[in-house]
Structure formats: structure tokens, C-alpha cells
Amino acid sequence: MITVQEFCKAEEVDEDSVYGVFVSYIEIYNNYIYDLLEEVPFDPIKPKWNSCSTPMRNTDFVPPQSKLLREDKNHNMYVAGCTEIEVKSTEEAFEVFWRGQKKRRIANTHLNRESSRSHSVFNIKLVQAPLDADGDNVLQEKEQITISQLSLVDLAGSERTNRTRAEGNRLREAGNINQSLMTLRTCMDVLRENQMYGTNKMVPYRDSKLTHLFKNYFDGEGKVRMIVCVNPKAEDYEESLQVMRFAEVTQEVEVARPIDKAICGLTPGRRYRNQARGPVGDEPLVTDMVLQSFPPLPSCEILDINDEHTLPKLIEALEKRHHLRQMMIDEFNKQANTFKALLQGFDSAVLSKENYIQGKLNEKEKVISGQKLEIERLEKKNKTLEYKIEILEKTTTIYEEDKRNLQQELETQNQKLQRQFSDKRRLEARLQGMVTETTMKWEKECERRVAAKQLEMQNKLWVKDEKLKQLKAIVTEPKTEKPERPSRERDREKVTQRSVSPSPVPFLFQPDQNIPPIRLRHRRSRSAGDRWVDHKPASNVQTETVMQPHVPHAITVSVANEKALAKCEKYMLTHQELASDGEIETKLIKGDVYKTRGGGQSVQFTDIETLKQESPSGSRKRRSSTVVPAQADGTESEWTDVETRCSVAVEMRAGSQLGPGYQHHAQPKRKKP
């Protein structure tokens, strides 16, 4: 127990009033209000039923019923049916507090051995009632009674499930605690925003019983103070940070203080005035005071017969008293008449005032009766609305549960559809890749087969054409003339004068895809006006051939870079590789340089030229010094030396899959006779 010290006592207390102190203790558990001071009676006739639908034993605990929040005619919130106990001392108040503290719900968690599972509110209510005009009895007017309330609120701390390891009922309690604290913070934020920016947003007090109970305090009917508890442990840094942020928000909320109403119409100090008046029997009589004002009587004792002075003195004193008495009677009569006139005027004034007050009282009684009827009607309406609200809350809870279930089911279906859609896209991409790969493979195979077949047919046609031409030349020549051996120059001129068959034209196989058309003839002088980037890697081998690729106005680099590509419009890469016959094969890969949206450059390859070097040493035949006889059909023999053969040029075009080009041979020299 705490001992009240002298400096803790209140001063300047109005002594013309009487006071009473009442305490109550409630808790808010799972958003329901319970009375901790309620004594639950046990009814032996009507059995109690537990959650298993079986009757409870006499020793079983009967859970208390939750209380409802109501609003009085002054729009103040209170708990209906809550137990309020009047206390006369601090010891009695603490005894009531500990009695309710034993019923408060606490549980053991991973972080706290006695963790509060509810918000508790200990209310101390001070009632002030003024005394009447005499200072003896309490004034029987409800409007003059003043009630002050101090609410000590113990908020349960916010919890993280992963730290407290709560399950079942503990998990549900933690969710309700966090939800009520979140609603309290939301109300604070809305109040601060309304005060700072002048907005008029609705404060969501009804979202939680905690904020709904203390709505009047935040609306200006009270004063709010908050004490924050912070744990200095490093493991609780996140929780402490959130609590401090919440405390910072509450500091910026201003609550207007109410204006105290004064008790009017009564004279202060009336209690002490009646106490100082004392009993009526102790007051001195008016006659005694008048007799004391008369002159004293002389001595009336006569000891001598011849005494002539005593009687005259007594007569003189009595005459003076009689004269004074007469004067006092006259003055008294005058004052009595004056006072009587005043009393008559006062009586008439009081009578008129009584009539006026009686008329006012009649009007007030009519108004009060009408207000009582209106209050009864409103209370009935309020009960009906509260019943409807309870039904709507239950319906809303059911609908919210159905909504959560439907949302979970919808999310599950959406996830399933997303997985199916992703599987479908992957399957489509894989099938598209397989189709594209198979199509390209068969297109290349068809092109290769067509090209090979066309090359074979053209070569056969060319051989037949050459044989026919040789046969025609033999037939048309006169046989009597002895053939002379022409010189190399003349033979070459004859070769140029003779009509030769056209070289085989490659068959262009172009599928339906977006493949650029093949240019049949390549002009090297077409790019004479463009700027080129000649990319020659350092690993290339210099060939000693007569025909070397040469591009004028070119920038020669060993490694492609963005600076060189930005200055040119064309690009050429010199690539060397070893052919199947062991000779070096040089490929010139050409392309156009384009600028990209990001400010860079890109190269689109458009043409490939292949330069191949062949060694004729393996197939060259030395010419014999003897004359070779002519063939039986009149034709000459095959070519006998390298000079009768022409050079070989190979060219590949963009988009063509024909492989190496076609060999063009010159007319064979005739054998010397």
C-alpha cells in the first residue's frame, strides 16, 4: 500500500460542497469489454454450459459477460452495467484495485512470463455536489453536480509473432492487441492532420473499443497524457523504434481543455456561517439589553425616620427611567411602523416573485416532462439501434470471413492460372524453337540439294556444249591443210573470239521467310564513296597472292571499337581459316553500320566474299616433247599443262547456301601438230 503524504493532499477545496470518490476496473480483451469487479453469482437451479455443450460443475468457473458501450445525453461514453465502488481512503481504493488485478488475463509467452493479454482501465471518479442555501443539505439539482474522472490505462504491448512464438488463442490475442493499437495510431494521425492542415476528416473511433471509449478525451472533453515504456535491449530495437515514433506522433496532437462551469445562485461560505451562528438559546435577550441601558437605581434602604434624601433620589431616578422608557417606546413604535411598512412591501414583492417563479416552474415541469418522454423514446430507439448494430456487426463479420475465404480462393486460382500460363508460354516457346530449327534445317538441306543438283546439271550441260563446239570445229576445218601451231597470243585471241557457252547461273532458292534477295552480280566499285572500317585481326596471316582485297578511304583496326564505327558507314571483317584441302581460305564479311536509339552503333551483315588459294602442282602434267597422236574422233587430247587452265574465283552471296562458287575454265589449247 502507498501512504498518502501531506504534500499530496489537495488544497483550495470548495468547502460549500460535499464530495464522493468511486472506482471501477475494466479490461478490453479481444475487442470486448469485461468488468473485473463484477461478482458472478452462481445459480444452482439454472445450470451453466461450457464449450463442449455439457453442464458445468459447481466448482467450474463461469466466464463473465461482456459489457456494452453507451452514450449519455451529453454525448459522453460510458460502460453500461459497470460496477462502481465508493471508497473513503487510499487503502480501500488499492484493495479494490488488487481485487480486480487478480482477474485480469495474463499468459506466458516466449518473451514475457506474465504478458498482459488485454488493455486494462482503472477509473477514479470524483463527484462534487453543492450544499443548499442553508449549508446543511445537498442541493437536489442534477445540473449542479460536477463529475471528474481519471482513467489509468495500461496498454498491452505490440507483439511480433515470430518472436513471441504465439499459437492458437495467444495468436488471436496478439492480433487483436496489434489491431487496437493500430487503430489508436490511425486516430492520432487523423487528428494531427485535421489540426495541421485544417481538414475535417472523420476520426475512426468506432473501429476499436479502446478508441471508442476515450472518444470524448480526444474531442476536447478531457486531458490526455502518455507514458512510453522502452526496453534498452538491442534485440528489441525495432519494437522500441516503433514505440518512439508513435510517441512522437502523439506529441503533435493538441486537445482543447474544457471550460469549468461555476455554481451560480449560492452564497459562498454558507457552511461556516451556519456553524458560527451557534444555538438560539445562547443569544442575549433584548429586554436585558434595554434594562442595562437604563440608569442605575440608588440605594432604597431607609435607616432613619428623618431621612429626607433617599426617597427624593429614588423618585428622581424612577422619573428618569420612566421618561427614558417613554422615549424608547415612541422610538420603538416609529421603527415598528417603518419595519411593518417594509415587511408589507417585501411581502408583496415576495408574493409577486413567488407567482412568477411558480409560473416558471410550471413551464419547466412541462418542458422536463416532455424531455423525459423524449428521453424514453430515444432510449428505446437507442436500444433498437444497438440491437440492429449488433446484428449488422455479426453479419459484417460473417461477410468479411466469406470475403477473406473468397479472396484466398481467388488468389489460389490466380496463382494456378499464372503457373498454367507460364507453362503454356514455355511450351509454346520450346515448340516454336523446335519448329524454327527444323524449318531452317530442312531449308538448308533443300537449298544444298537443289544447288548440288543444279551445279551437276550445269556442269554436264557445259561439258556437252564444249564437246559439241570442239566437234563442230573439227568438222568445219579442212583436212588437207596441215595444222600449224599458233602462238600463245594467237591461240588466246582465238579463244576470246570463239563463242563460249554461258557460265552456269546459280539457282536462287528463296523460301517464304524474310531472307533478303541475293544479288546476282557484285560490283566492288559500288562502295567507292562510303567510308569503311577494315577490321583485320592481328592473328591473320599475310598471303602472297596477286589479288589482295583493297578498300579506299578505310580505317584499319585490329579490334572493333565504337569510335571507329561512329565515323564510317560500312564494315568489313577479314577472317581466315584452313580449308579441307589444307590451303588458307580468306573470307571478307561485309555489313552496314546503323545508329541505335541509345546512341551506339550496330552492324547488319549483308555480304560475304570468299578468297581461296589453290595449288595446281598435284594435277599439272608436263607436256611431252613428242607429238601426241590425234584421237580417233578427230578431237585433240585433254589439256596438257597449267597454262591451258584459267584461275579459279570463288564468291559467296548473302543469303545463299550454295557453298563454293563454280569453276570457270578457258578453252583448251589445241595440240601442236
From TrEMBL:
It is found in: Cytoplasm, Cytoskeleton, Spindle; Midbody, Midbody ring; Nucleus. It comes from the Eukaryota. The keyword Nucleotide-binding applies. Residues 361-430 form a coiled coil. InterPro entries: Kif23_Arf-bd, Kif23_Arf-bd_sf, Kinesin-like_fam, Kinesin_motor_CS, Kinesin_motor_dom, Kinesin_motor_dom_sf, P-loop_NTPase. Its main location: cytoplasm. The keyword GTP-binding does not apply. One of its GO terms (molecular function) is ATP hydrolysis activity. Gene3D superfamilies: Kinesin motor domain, Kinesin-like protein Kif23, Arf6-interacting domain. One of its GO terms (cellular component) is nucleus. Keywords: ATP-binding, Cell cycle, Cell division, Coiled coil, Cytoplasm, Cytoskeleton, Isopeptide bond, Microtubule, Mitosis, Motor protein, Nucleotide-binding, Nucleus, Phosphoprotein, Ubl conjugation. Residues 1-253 form the Kinesin motor domain. It holds the Pfam family MKLP1_Arf_bdg. GO terms for biological process: cell division; microtubule-based movement; mitotic spindle midzone assembly. Transmembrane segments: none annotated. Residues 474-513, 611-641, 654-673 are annotated as: Disordered. Residues 478-496 have a biased composition (Basic and acidic residues). PROSITE patterns: KINESIN_MOTOR_1, KINESIN_MOTOR_2. Component of the centralspindlin complex that serves as a microtubule-dependent and Rho-mediated signaling required for the myosin contractile ring formation during the cell cycle cytokinesis. Essential for cytokinesis in Rho-mediated signaling. Required for the localization of ECT2 to the central spindle. Plus-end-directed motor enzyme that moves antiparallel microtubules in vitro. Heterotetramer of two molecules each of RACGAP1 and KIF23. Found in the centralspindlin complex. Interacts with RACGAP1; the interaction is direct. Interacts with ECT2 and PRC1. Interacts with ANXA11 during cytokinesis. Interacts with BIRC6/bruce and USP8/UBPY. Interacts with ARF6, forming heterodimers and heterotetramers. Belongs to the TRAFAC class myosin-kinesin ATPase superfamily. Kinesin family. This is Kinesin-like protein. The gene is KIF23.
